[in-house]
Amino acid sequence: MKKNSYIGISFIVLLFGIWTVKELSERFKENDLKVLTKVPSFELTDQNGKKISDKSYLGKVYVVEFFFANCLTICPIMNKNLVQVQDEFYGNLDFGIASITIDPEHDTPAFLKEHAKTLGVKHPNWHFLTGNSDYIMNLANKGFYIQAGKDAKAQGGFGHSGQFALIDKDGNIRSRKDKFGNPILFYDGLEQAGIDALKEDIKLLLEE
User: Fold this and answer.
1) 14 plus 109 within the same structural domain
2) CA distance 126 to 122
3) Taking the CA of residue 42 as centre, how many other CA atoms within 13 Å lie in the half-sphere pointing to its CB?
4) How many CB atoms lie under 10 A from the CB of residue 136?
5) 44, 63, 141, 178: which one has the fewest Cβ atoms less than 10 Å from its Cβ?
6) Are both 116 and 18 inside the same structural domain?
7) Whether residue 100 sits in one domain with residue 195
8) In terms of domains, do 87 and 171 share one?
9) Tens-digit pLDDT string for the chain (208 aa)
10) Do the strands 51-53 and 158-160 form a parallel or antiparallel pair, or are they unpaired?
11) What is the domain count for the chain?
12) Secondary structure letter of residue 183 according to DSSP
């Protein structure tokens, strides 16, 4: 083989080595998702009558929403979008969802089980959670800082946010940053852009 051929092959090998190192460094470098705070402690009952707490989700990346089953405004959109997220990560047992009702008087475990069935919920780590009303309202507003409450003027009698919280495997609330470098805090559960961002960041956290 001619000398020039050896040089050519060596150059290709060198380029391949550089590309491989770069690819690995990009894959394993720390992501830019901001740690906001620890997830508040909670314990509620799911659609199967099982006690589920924040500790049940340790080791998993999960999404938290506050909703109610009889909501006819934003909740159906939020639930539908979470089904999309579920389908993206179906089969991954390191992923989960916590859907917490703000209407526990109506949303019993049995009712939530039917609601989950209607939605097409199939991921074993998607829990629809219910419990004491005051406890849940305190958890939403003072634990997660996601607005929720009774509102006689609102359709269905409750007003609440359409935002999702993203939690990492260690129980930290995480978020991406906006173009100014500020954390967005929560993910828009109503627009596709917010869902796309959520799915991208779930993937990042699953790789940690």
Assistant:
1) no
2) 8
3) 28
4) 22
5) 178
6) no
7) yes
8) yes
9) 555 554 554 444 444 454 444 443 444 446 899 999 999 999 999 999 999 999 999 999 999 999 999 999 999 999 999 999 999 999 999 999 999 999 999 999 999 999 999 999 999 999 999 999 999 999 999 999 999 999 888 888 898 999 999 999 999 999 999 999 999 999 999 999 999 999 999 999 999 9
10) unpaired
11) 2
12) B
Please tell me the total number of residues recorded for the chain in this structure: 208
Rounded to whole angstroms, how far apart are CA atoms 110 and 49?
Answer: 8
Prediction pTM value: 0.85
Same domain as 129, residue 165? yes
**In sequence order, which residues have a C-beta less than 8 Å from that of residue 140 and are 6 or more positions away?**
66, 100, 102, 146, 147, 148, 160
Range of the domain at 4: 1-30
* Amino acid of residue 89: F
| Cα end-to-end span (Å), the chain | 46
